[in-house]
Write a structure and sequence with these properties.
Elements: E1 8-16, H1 20-28, H2 33-36, E2 40-48, E3 54-61, E4 68-77, E5 82-88, E6 94-105, E7 111-121, H3 126-156, E8 161-170, H4 174-182, H5 187-190, E9 194-201, E10 208-216, E11 222-232, E12 236-241, E13 248-259, E14 265-275, H6 286-311
Antiparallel strand pairs: 1-7, 2-3, 3-4, 4-5, 5-6, 6-7, 8-14, 9-10, 10-11, 11-12, 12-13, 13-14
Length: 314
């Protein structure tokens, strides 16, 4: 009979000056994860119940030694302000990983956020268990801090989230449009403010690569931009800005290619920003950011459309 593996259980706590409902929403809504948590690069639904209380999601993150992805089953209870999660087929050296997010209203206002974990290491390996201990400790502390910061900032400054989404029809196959987006050698032609674009993808990173480029800013000065991209062949490239920006604290999004019923492809570009309040509490005007981002986004989409159609002409 096999020996029972050691189950490690932990709980991390943080008091946050924001309502429990707002904190629960930031964790429960999958689209918010990349905006709130620095180590989360992309999240998508694989399954979802009709009432939205049970879901299977895939997460791409770089919180460990290297970027990788995993699937997690989540059970959401909005009434109880509780969210349970458990990894399906955990990656080595993890044998099992589950936990809960709980949001308890405090008597004087605000919320006590509790994040629990229960986990085992494969074969009870002591070195592996120490590695997981360290990962859980770092990740829990970072996620609680990031969640609290996001909720408190948005409570003090409503309307920090700005989204731009546009689509174009392309008379070319989806595979050809995707290849054009994926090949960074073409990017200075697709987005002229970029130069010397490089991409590095490590083995076993589940499609995650780091892209760096020299970029010309609105003031004409050159700077280096760095992005994480999650490449899902033939359908999507999700992205997250890693280099700092003076006006926004986060910039995430994706380019999605989808075959059209009558032939050709719908190419969609989506950008989500979090405005960064300055020392005086003021932010860049939402309309100004939306207009500038929309102009760049549609310009990129149209350049991709033109080159894809040109390349696939008979």
């Amino acid at each position: 009979m096999a020996a029972q593996q050691t189950l490690r259980e932990t709980e991390h706590r943080a008091e946050v000056a924001a309502p429990p409902e707002a904190l629960y929403r930031l964790v429960a809504e999958v689209d918010e994860a990349t905006r709130v948590f620095a180590s989360t690069l992309h999240v998508e639904h694989l399954e979802r119940s009709e009432d939205g209380t049970d879901e299977l999601i895939r997460i791409w993150g770089n919180g460990g030694v290297k970027a990788r992805s995993w699937t997690s089953r989540r059970r959401l209870d909005e009434g109880a302000l509780r969210l349970r999660f458990g990894q399906e087929r955990p990656r080595e050296p993890i044998a099992e990983m589950s936990g809960e997010w709980l949001f308890d209203p405090l008597p004087g206002g605000g919320t006590l956020v509790r994040l629990t974990h229960a986990y085992r290491a494969i074969d009870d390996d002591p070195a592996a268990l120490r590695e997981i201990d360290d990962l859980v400790e770092r990740t829990s502390a970072a996620q609680l801090a990031a969640l609290g910061d996001a909720a408190e900032r948005e409570a003090a400054h409503p309307g920090l989230r700005v989204q731009v989404q546009q689509s174009v029809a392309v008379a070319a196959p989806a595979a050809a449009v995707y290849r054009l987006l994926h090949d960074v050698a073409d990017w200075p032609l697709l987005l002229p403010r970029l130069a010397e674009v490089r991409a590095v993808e490590s083995p076993g990173s589940d499609g995650v690569r780091t892209v760096t480029a020299r970029a010309k800013g609105p003031d004409g000065a050159e700077r280096t931009e760095e992005w994480a991209q999650v490449c899902l062949p033939g359908r999507m490239i999700a992205f997250k800005r890693l280099s700092p920006d003076p006006c926004t604290s986060t910039h995430t999004g994706y380019w999605e290619v989808a075959p059209r019923a009558g032939g050709g492809t719908t190419l969609t570009g989506r950008h989500v920003f979090t405005l960064s309040p300055g020392e005086d509490g003021r932010t860049l005007d939402r309309a100004t950011l939306r207009a500038a981002a929309g102009q760049e986004n549609i310009g990129l989409l149209e350049n991709v459309r033109a080159r894809a159609e040109q390349r696939t002409q008979p």
